[in-house]
Design goal:
Two copies of one chain form a homodimer. The relative contact order of chain A is 0.16. Chain A is mainly beta. Chain A has a 13-stranded antiparallel β-sheet, covered by helices on one side. In chain A, strands 3-4 form a two-stranded antiparallel ribbon. Chains A and B meet through strand 5, strand 8, strand 9, strand 13 and strand 14 of A and strand 5, strand 8, strand 9, strand 13 and strand 14 of B. Strand 14 of chain A pairs antiparallel with strand 9 of chain B.
Chain lengths: ~270, ~270
């Protein structure tokens, strides 16, 4: 069993759609459990409810982050809103001690059942192979603020990692390769975490510090093949203290498998 | 009082956060009330709840469309999830006869209170002025399937309107100018409708017919100035029978005021 799968050991309770989970400090970054990981936790709970309807995969998954999750027990609750032929719609929440951490509205379906036709899609950006990229543990300590980064084998394209040595490019782009150290095969729920695993693009504007996500919406496009994933973060709108951040994820065959857009507040410290 | 404001005449009920509204056939397109208009209806109900908290404007607004809304009475319900200093998070629904039509998860704040700094933004696309664009009533009747289009003064850039005369470009882009015939000044809740008022980009691939929205997430960026709005729809991912459709809206000063991404199913008829 991989580290990620152990961390996602949700316990069903007597109540329909209600689960408990123990959030480990291992998945924390800064003063909070990583938001991407929390999406995988809620995404997995939802999957357990919708898989019985023939809808194992998130198609669209919106998460609002209400307060910072801490290590320790958490309650996850999934409420099916509507289940039809092609999809199930649900709302869900993750709370600790009665305080909401995350609220979710999502639709699940069956990615394996979609037709294979691709009219328009996005190709992965050109970047050097993983062995020529910058590893987490090669970055200055100040930019490695939590154990979450040890959960991933992240290789940043040196061309987009200038911020790590105090030379942000101000282009608003960070990209690289990612997998877990134990090479856990990706699946759609795992991709929810990958969509929010890179440092925020605000780093590339020299604005370090935590950029709290207000809302992130993920769209899942296809079942990923095993192997390295490529991830690209970028922004084309950063104004009024809010940043619109787009993430794309490609699997080892170069196919777009997931994307997200999030609205985040820029870091207070500059 | 403008036509749009009359249509948004929500009646508060005795229950906190619960409203009733009469959906007029005037805002229908095809066999359903327009989804963008429904977002404005729910968005207005939410605004009435959050304005008391100092948060009059949607910042991020996610709508799931569960079934087609019909003319007639509808119940709108807003539940405040959390209200803090800078924003209020809420869930909401629009139902008819107990059947959910729309489910919403949103965060409201105060756009007027945001700092004016713009680090990165998107400029409006080049397009001819409104008087050199194609009006709704100049389009072939087959592409004008409901009274909703008469609620808007829509002027399409001829370069992106080939689909209206059976010559789709397959580029996946539709753009133009829009306002109401009575030139109602836009506001953030009004922009929710504008984000989904153009024909679907699937038309530009020659795939006519209704492309049902699964989910649409709007981000509001700034308070719009009065006058014409510019709108651009585009897709960069259309695969597996699902289309990812991006909408951007600029105000009369050329400032990006709202954007959205939606996940829609492609039309069944081709």
């Amino acid at each position: 069993m991989t580290e990620y799968d152990r961390a996602l050991s949700l316990q069903a309770t007597d109540e329909d759609g209600a689960f408990v989970v123990d959030l480990s400090r291992d998945w924390s970054i800064g003063a909070a459990v990583n938001g991407g990981f929390l999406m995988s936790v809620v995404g997995e709970a939802a999957r357990r409810v919708t898989v019985e309807r023939g809808h194992p995969d998130p198609l669209t998954f919106t998460a609002h982050f209400l307060s910072a999750a801490q290590e320790g027990p958490a309650d996850v609750r999934v409420d099916l809103v509507r289940s039809g032929r092609t999809q199930s719609t649900l709302s869900a929440s993750l709370a600790q001690g009665g305080t909401d951490r995350v609220r979710v509205l999502a639709a699940y379906g069956d990615l394996a059942g979609l037709p294979d036709e691709r009219l328009v899609t996005i190709d992965p950006p050109a970047m050097p192979p993983p062995e020529q990229c910058v590893r987490n543990d090669q970055m200055p300590a100040g930019n490695k603020p939590g154990p979450f980064l040890d959960r991933l084998d992240l290789r940043l394209d040196p061309d987009t990692a200038g911020w790590a040595v105090g030379e942000p490019t101000h282009r608003g782009r960070i990209q690289g390769w990612v997998r877990t150290p134990d090479d856990r095969a990706p699946d759609p729920v795992f991709l929810l975490m990958i969509l929010d695993c890179l440092p925020p693009v605000t780093f590339d504007f020299g604005r370090y510090g935590w950029a709290p996500t207000v809302e992130l919406t993920a769209h899942l496009a296809a079942l990923p093949e095993p192997g390295w994933l490529q991830v690209r973060l970028m922004t084309d709108h950063y104004a009024g203290g809010l940043v619109s951040e787009d993430a794309e994820v490609w699997d080892s065959t170069g196919r777009l498998v997931a994307r997200a857009r999030q609205l985040a507040r820029e870091p207070r410290q500059r």
